[in-house]
C-alpha cells in the first residue's frame, strides 16, 4: 500500500505537472494572440498602403487623361493604361485583406463602384475629344463629373481608413489588456509552482531524515536479530519461489558447523551436512514444501566436521511481498538441548513412577502390615484387661488404659495418613455429579455423631458439578466432622451450608483465576471457634489448636480438605472468632 509520503509526493508532482502544462498553454495562447495582433497590424498597414496606392494610381490616370486631352498624343495613354491595371490589382488585394470585416466589405463595394464610374467617365471623355477643336460642352461636363467622382473616391478611401484605424485601436486595447494580465497570471502560476516544489522539497527532506533513522534502526535491529539468533540457537532462511533461489542467515551456517556465508546457499550444499539416515525424510519434506508451499515442523540431524551431531527443527510459511513476489520464510532451530532435557524429564518421570509405585507399596504395608501388629497389641491388651484385671494393680490398669488410648490414636493417625496419601496419589477422574447426593452420603457416614450431638444441618440446594466424587464426599465428611467435634458444651450444633455463584474478579482470593465464575460453598457452625490469626495454620499437616486431652484428632483432617480443594483447582478459606463459631468457605471453578 502507498505510504502517506509517497501519496503526498505523487500529488505534488501531478499538481506541478498540471501547473507547467497550464503555463505552456497560456504561453501558447499568448503567443498566438500576439501573432494574430501582428497579422492584424500588418493587414492594416497593407490595406492603408493599397488605399493610398489607389489614390496615387488614380492621379496618374488623371495626368495621362489630361495630357491626352490637351495634346491628343497617344503617348499619354500609356500611363493611363498602367494606372488602370494598378488600380485593378489594388482592388484585388483589398478583397483578400478585408474578407472578414462586413462593414469594410460594404465600403469596398462603394469604392469599387465609384472607381468604375470614374473610369467610365475617362472612357466617355476620350470618345468626345477631337484633335483640332476645343473642348465641347459635353466634355467639360464630363471633366466636372470626373472631379466629383474623384472626390467621392477620396471620401470612400478616407472612410475605409478611419474604420480600419478604429478596428486597429480596438484590437490594440484588447491585446494590451491581455498582455497586462498575462505577466500576473504567469507570476501567480510560478509562485504556486515554487510553493509546491518547496513543500515537496521539505517533505522529501523530512522523509529522507526519517529514512536515515529507519535505516539506523534497521541496522540495529539486524544486529540484534543476528545476536539473538546466536543466543537462542535459531536461524532464518528465505526461498524465492519464482527464481528458485535460497538465502541463509549467518547463524544457519553456524548451526551446521561452518562459518557464515562459507558456501553457496543451495539445497545440494545443505544436504551435505544432513545425517545420512535423515536425508530421505528431509528431502520428502522439502519436495512437499515446494508442492504445497508450506513446511510443517520437521526435525532432522546434521553432522559437523568434527563428528558432532546436532538436532535441528525447521518450519516455513508462504508470504507475498508488496510487489507480489512469492517468498517462503523459514526458521530453523537447534533443539539438541531440548531433546536432552526431554530425555532427562522422561528419566525423572520414570523415577517418579517408580517412587509412586513404592509409595503405593508403602501404603499397602501401612494399611496391612503396620496395622496388623497394632490390632494384636489392642487384642492382647483387651484380653489382659478382661482376664487379669483382678491381678493387676491400679497403677497397672492405668498404664493399660494409656496404652489403649495411645494405640487408638496411632490407628487413627495411620488411617488419616493413608487417606491423605490417597488424596495426593489417586487418579483424578472428573465425573458429572449431583453434590446433594454426596452431601447425603457424608451425613449418613456421620449419622451416629450427628444423633449423639443432636446436631441440625441446614443446606441449600447444591449444583451438579464435574468433580472427583469420593474426594468431595470426604471433604464434606471432614468439614462436618470438624464442626461436630468443636461444638460448644451443652449447645446443640447447628451447621448451615449455603451456595451461590460468584464472579472471580469480585473475590480477592480468586481474582487472578483463569476461570470467570466460581461456586461458593460455605459451611457455618456455632461452635467454639478460634482466633482468626490461626486461619491459615489449621490447614497445615499435623497442626492442632487444642491439646490431645481436650479434643481427639490427628491434625490431618483439614489438611486433607485443603488438598482435595486444590485438586479441583479451588480455594478454601476459614473465618472465625472465639465462641462465635467458624465458617469454611470453598470456591470451586466452573464454566458458565
Automatic annotation (TrEMBL):
Domain Histidine kinase: start-end pairs: 365-592
Keyword terms of this UniProt record: Coiled coil, Kinase, Membrane, Phosphoprotein, Transferase, Transmembrane, Transmembrane helix
InterPro entries per UniProt: CHASE3, HATPase_C_sf, HATPase_dom, His_kinase_dom, HisK_dim/P_dom, HisK_dim/P_sf, PAS-like_dom_sf, PAS_fold_3
Reactions performed catalytically: ATP + protein L-histidine = ADP + protein N-phospho-L-histidine
Protein's name in the database: histidine kinase
Keyword flag Nucleotidyltransferase: no
Enzyme class at the top of the EC tree: transferase
Phosphoprotein listed as a keyword: yes
Annotated transmembrane regions: 12-31, 184-202
Coiled-coil stretches noted in the UniProt entry, renumbered to this chain: 335-362
Molecular functions (GO terms): phosphorelay sensor kinase activity
EC number, as in UniProt: 2.7.13.3
CDD domains, A to Z: HisKA, HK9-like_sensor
Amino acid at each position: 500500500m502507498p505510504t502517506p509520503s509517497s501519496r503526498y509526493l505523487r500529488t505534488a508532482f501531478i499538481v506541478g505537472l498540471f501547473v507547467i502544462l497550464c503555463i505552456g498553454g497560456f504561453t501558447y495562447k499568448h503567443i498566438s494572440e500576439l501573432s494574430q495582433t501582428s497579422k492584424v497590424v500588418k493587414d492594416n498597414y497593407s490595406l492603408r498602403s493599397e488605399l493610398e496606392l489607389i489614390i496615387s494610381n488614380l492621379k496618374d490616370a488623371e495626368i495621362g487623361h489630361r495630357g491626352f486631352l490637351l495634346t491628343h498624343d497617344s503617348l499619354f495613354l500609356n500611363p493611363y493604361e498602367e494606372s488602370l491595371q494598378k488600380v485593378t490589382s489594388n482592388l484585388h488585394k483589398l478583397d483578400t485583406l478585408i474578407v472578414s470585416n462586413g462593414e469594410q466589405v460594404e465600403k469596398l463595394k462603394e469604392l469599387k463602384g465609384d472607381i468604375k464610374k470614374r473610369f467610365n467617365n475617362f472612357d466617355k471623355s476620350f470618345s468626345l475629344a477631337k484633335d483640332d477643336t476645343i473642348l465641347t460642352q459635353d466634355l467639360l461636363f464630363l471633366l466636372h463629373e470626373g472631379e466629383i467622382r474623384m472626390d467621392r473616391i477620396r471620401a470612400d478611401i478616407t472612410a475605409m481608413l478611419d474604420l480600419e484605424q478604429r478596428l486597429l485601436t480596438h484590437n490594440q486595447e484588447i491585446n494590451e489588456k491581455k498582455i497586462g494580465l498575462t505577466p500576473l497570471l504567469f507570476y501567480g502560476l510560478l509562485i504556486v509552482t515554487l510553493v509546491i516544489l518547496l513543500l515537496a522539497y521539505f517533505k522529501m527532506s523530512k522523509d529522507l531524515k526519517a529514512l536515515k533513522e529507519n535505516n539506523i534502526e534497521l541496522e540495529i535491529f539486524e544486529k540484534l536479530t543476528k545476536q539473538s539468533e546466536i543466543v537462542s540457537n535459531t536461524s532464518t532462511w528465505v526461498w524465492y519461489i519464482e527464481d528458485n533461489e535460497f538465502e541463509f542467515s549467518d547463524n544457519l551456517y553456524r548451526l551446521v558447523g561452518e562459518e557464515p556465508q562459507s558456501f553457496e546457499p543451495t539445497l545440494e550444499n545443505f544436504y551435505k551436512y544432513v545425517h545420512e539416515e535423515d536425508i530421505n525424510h528431509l528431502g520428502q519434506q522439502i519436495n512437499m514444501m515446494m508442492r504445497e508451499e508450506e513446511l510443517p515442523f520437521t526435525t532432522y540431524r546434521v553432522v559437523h566436521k568434527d563428528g558432532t551431531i546436532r538436532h535441528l527443527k525447521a518450519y516455513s510459511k508462504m508470504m507475498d511481498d508488496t510487489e507480489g513476489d512469492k517468498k517462503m520464510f523459514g526458521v530453523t532451530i537447534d533443539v539438541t538441548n531440548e531433546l536432552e532435557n526431554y530425555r532427562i524429564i522422561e528419566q525423572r518421570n520414570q523415577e517418579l513412577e517408580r517412587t509412586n509405585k513404592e509409595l503405593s507399596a508403602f501404603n499397602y504395608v501401612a494399611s496391612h502390615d503396620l496395622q496388623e501388629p497394632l490390632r494384636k497389641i489392642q487384642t492382647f491388651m483387651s484380653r489382659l484387661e478382661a482376664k487379669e484385671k483382678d491381678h493387676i494393680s491400679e497403677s497397672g490398669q492405668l498404664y493399660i488404659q494409656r496404652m489403649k488410648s495411645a494405640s487408638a490414636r496411632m490407628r487413627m493417625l495411620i488411617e488419616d495418613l493413608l487417606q491423605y496419601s490417597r488424596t495426593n496419589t489417586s487418579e483424578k477422574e472428573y465425573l458429572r455429579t449431583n453434590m446433594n447426593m454426596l452431601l447425603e452420603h457424608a451425613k449418613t457416614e456421620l449419622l451416629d455423631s450427628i444423633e449423639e450431638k443432636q446436631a441440625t444441618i441446614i443446606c441449600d440446594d447444591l449444583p451438579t458439578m464435574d468433580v472427583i466424587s469420593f474426594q468431595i464426599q470426604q471433604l464434606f465428611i471432614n468439614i462436618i466432622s470438624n464442626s461436630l467435634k468443636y461444638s460448644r458444651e451443652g449447645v446443640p450444633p447447628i451447621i448451615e451450608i449455603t451456595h451461590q455463584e460468584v464472579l472471580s474478579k469480585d473475590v480477592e482470593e480468586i481474582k487472578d483465576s483463569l476461570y470467570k465464575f466460581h461456586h461458593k460453598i460455605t459451611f457455618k457452625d456455632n461452635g467454639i471457634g478460634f482466633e482468626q490469626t490461626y486461619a491459615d495454620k489449621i490447614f497445615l499437616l499435623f497442626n492442632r489448636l487444642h491439646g490431645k486431652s481436650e479434643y481427639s484428632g490427628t491434625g490431618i483432617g483439614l489438611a486433607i480438605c485443603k488438598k482435595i480443594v486444590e485438586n479441583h483447582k479451588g480455594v478454601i478459606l476459614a473465618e472465625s472468632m472465639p465462641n462465635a463459631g467458624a465458617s469454611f468457605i470453598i470456591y470451586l471453578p466452573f464454566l458458565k
